[in-house]
Amino acid sequence: MDLTRLLLLLSTLAFVGGLVHAIVTLRAGAWKESLWHLLPMATGFVFQCAFLYLRGQAHGRCPLTNLFE
Fold first, then answer.
1. What is the pTM of this model?
2. What average pLDDT score do residues 54-65 get?
3. Do 7 and 53 meet the contact criterion of CB atoms below 8 Å apart?
4. CB atoms within 10 A of CB 29
């Protein structure tokens, strides 16, 4: 597995982890503003930006031309 696919997988897992955490806390009625709600989104954003940067460097252009990207 190359680095770009790993970064995309990690970003997806971070976003899914944040979603699962939000659903669990909402269903339990225990929603409170905290860093734990922002952390998975920020982590996913960083991994996704790194993925897009590396794909852009590999292609020499903006890497938003197919469904994978």
1. 0.80
2. 82
3. no
4. 6
